[in-house]
Amino acid sequence: MVQKYQSPVRVYKHPFELIMAAYERRFPTCPLIPMFVASDTVNEYKSEDEAIHVIERRCKLDIDAPRLLKKIAGVDYVYFVQKNSLNRRERTLHIEAYNETFSNRVIINEHCSYTVHPDNEDWTCFEQSASLDIKSFFGFESTVEKIAMKQYTSNIKKGKEIIEYYLKQMEEEGITFVPRWTPPVACKSESSTCHPRRPVSPAINIPESATKEGLSNKEILNTSSSPSEPTAGTPDDKLDADYIKRYLGDLTPMQESCLIRLRQWLQETHKGKIPKDEHILRFLRARDFNIDKAREILCQSLTWRKQHQVDYILDTWNPPQVLQDYYAGGWHHHDKDGRPLYVLRLGQMDTKGLVRALGEEALLRYVLSINEEGLRRCEENTKVFGRPISSWTCLVDLEGLNMRHLWRPGVKALLRIIEVVEANYPETLGRLLILRAPRVFPVLWTLVSPFIDDNTRKKFLIYAGNDYQGPGGLLDYIDKEIIPDFLGGECMCEVPEGGLVPKSLYRTAEELENEDIKLWTETIYQSASVFKGAPHEVLIQIVDASSVITWDFDVCKGDIVFNIFHSKRAPQPPKKDSLGAHSITSPGGNNVQLIDKVWQLGRDYSMVESPLICKEGESVQVRQPEPLWGQMEPKLPVLTHSTDN
Predict the structure, then answer these.
(1) 3-state secondary structure 373-389
(2) What is residue 568's three-state secondary structure?
(3) Where is composition skewed (Polar residues) in this entry (predicted)?
(4) Which H or E run includes 111?
(5) Is 311-503 a CATH 3.40.525.10 domain?
(6) What separation in angstroms does the CA of 312 have from each of 226, 283, 316, 425?
(7) Environment class of residue 337 by beta-carbon count within 10 Å: exposed (0-12), middle (13-18) or buried (19+)?
């Protein structure tokens, strides 16, 4: 397996030339990197005007590996080749490195670059990427991979420290400015041109007031859209290290790399629909930064959000009055860590009455709106407290919980809500405080806990009776001033008290079923399962010669081939004969085939354009150019045809 690393953009608030002077001090050896024993120059090239300087070094490394492994490998040191290409004119340095030792068994490639900051020419940006591919290593492939990643991660952390160390060293020597490269003065002779070597300018001190004033941190930080408005920057967008630390928290180099690589993949495959960086990070954390697993659940969630228009739920859906009056939950200030605090008086809530009056889907949609509001509040608190806040705290008061709350349809609705929230809002619960748990609580916990992720369960704190008032209780997590009045605090809590839902508001099972269908079918999107030999086809009648047709779909699992066909006659509706070709359906019953098996391509219908292969996880938008439709006669049928690849 190939291990990859991609760094964020690290910004040095110093000019490029000064950074280059500091960088050169790392050679031939660097005391801050004990494993970097020595380096020898093997090739060097300088252009006549000194704008280009290419130097190739052979570096000797003393890898921190078990002595037995070194003995088996038969080496004490590992050698790398590093090629530095400095362009003083363009103010860039590109670094390429690869391993010389064991190159037939292990392939290591590294690419680094120093460039001028796009918004401030007196700042310097650094980026780094690398790959590790271990073909074979005497049966110790896994061990070598761990050692290599450990060493590399350690060196990454030291990279910026080393540059800053040498910058400080230069400052102590009185070197705070290095002049930019300028073209040499040409000779007056028209027949020839001379390139005299420019003398090295002496180092001089420049007062800070004379240097160009840089942009503030706030001005250079990237911002991206929330999950509610899944639009994002272009693939040119890059995360810088300061932004990550300020808005996303302290991540290890490999965690940063996972975030950047998954973000880049989304930018390439989900044009215009990239969720916010902290939302991507939640899915990575939920899968222990396994990119493949995180990508799978994130793509499924993005498709789910799109299909049910969850992105717009706060703007387009108003909770029924019954929920506003009898749902005993609401937001209440924040905890000591700055997390938004949600209070739920579950013991005072008539879950049976709410399910009978509203149905399961309305309750689910209300819980989704609460989660969407939680995401919004996390963003606000991140700005208010000046540190990353990506989750909220939930306080659940079970005073009044009894066997009525274990009503089977109510528990079923609760389990479904937990399942949906776990799948689409991972790592949003920072802490769950369960207070005044009664004797019946273990029964409810036994039913619910198997559906809760292990990482989430670790965040649960359960208090029986009045234990929450003692040491290690509520005061450890919530300031005294905002403890709700119903828990003995002084803060008036505006959370509804709940109570029994009047039976006059109950609705029949048929009414609830129709309402449930209405809630989740208010969308222009449809789902279909596609199998080999059983494509899903959609018929579109072209009634306007100037029409433009756009397809927008997400590939949840597997790869598919998307085709567009044209016919001057409409195909016959699918036959109901269970043995007929048209009766092949997916397990969901939503797979449709329209092209008659006796039709021949090129005679009965034609292919409009080349097939489009769509990979798993991709979000695809296909727009048919207007001129093509303008050439067709009105009311011509067009077939879209998707097959499993």
Answers:
(1) HHHHHHHHHHHHHCCCC
(2) coil
(3) 219-231
(4) strand 106-117
(5) yes
(6) 11, 21, 6, 16
(7) middle
Tell whether the model's pLDDT for residue 238 goes beyond 80: no
Q: What tokens does 246 get? A: 């300020």
- Report the C-alpha gap between 15 and 212 in whole angstroms: 10
Q: Please give the Cα distance from 433 to 344 (Å, whole number).
A: 10
Q: Token pair for residue 316?
A: 């387009």
In the numeric block, which tokens belong to residue 631?
């050439």
Return the residue matching tokens 């098996």.
Answer: 597
- How is residue 247 written in tokens? 């808005």
- Specify the amino acid at residue 16: F
C-beta separation of 543 from 561 below 8 A? no
* Domain boundaries 2-173, corresponding CATH code: 3.30.530.20
Task: Give the chain's radius of gyration (CA, Å).
Answer: 32
Q: Which of 10, 5, 12 is nearest to 245 (CA)?
A: 10
**Taking CA 569 as the corner, what is the angle to CA 566 and CA 570, rounded to the nearest 5 degrees?**
90
Answer yes or no: is pLDDT of 7 > 90. Answer: no
Please name the helix (run of DSSP H) or strand (run of DSSP E) that holds residue 12, with its range, or none: strand 10-12
**pLDDT band for position 525 (50/70/90)?**
low
CA dist 560 and 257 (Å) reads 29
Tokens of 30: 């660097």
Yes or no: say if 232 and 285 are a contact pair by the CB < 8 Å rule: no
The single residue listed with the structure tokens 């000194």 is: 50
**Sequence spans of domains, the chain:** 2-173, 241-309, 311-503, 525-573+588-644
Tens-place pLDDT, residues 581-628: 333 333 334 566 677 777 777 777 787 777 888 777 676 666 554 333
Q: Which residues of 563-592 are buried (b: 16+ CB within 10 A; e: fewer)?
A: bbbbbeeebeebeeeeeeebeebeeeeebb
Average pLDDT over residues 534-562: 74
pLDDT in tens, 292-317: 999 999 999 998 888 888 999 999 88
Strand arrangement, sheet containing 340-344:
329-334, 340-344, 392-397, 429-437, 460-464
Angle in degrees, 0-180, between the axes of helices 408-424 and 360-385, rounded to the nearest 10: 40
Mean pLDDT throughout 496-519?
A: 80
Please check whether residue 390 is in contact with residue 335, taking contact to mean a CB–CB distance below 8 angstroms: no
Structure-block tokens of residue 555:
């590939």
Nearest to 337 by CA among 278, 249, 253, 396: 249
Q: Which residues contact 405 (CB under 8 A, 6 or more apart)?
A: 346, 347, 349, 351, 352, 440, 444
Least confident of 91-100, 149-158, 220-229: 220-229
| Backbone phi and psi for residue 531, each to the nearest 5 degrees, phi listed first | -130, 165
Location of structure tokens 């036959």: 575
What is the per-residue pLDDT for 481?
A: 94
Fold exhibited by the domain 241-309? Helicase, Ruva Protein; domain 3 (1.10.8)
Exposure string (b/e) for 148-162, b if CB count within 10 Å is 16 or more? beebbeeebeebeeb
List the beta bridge partners of residue 46. Answer: 53
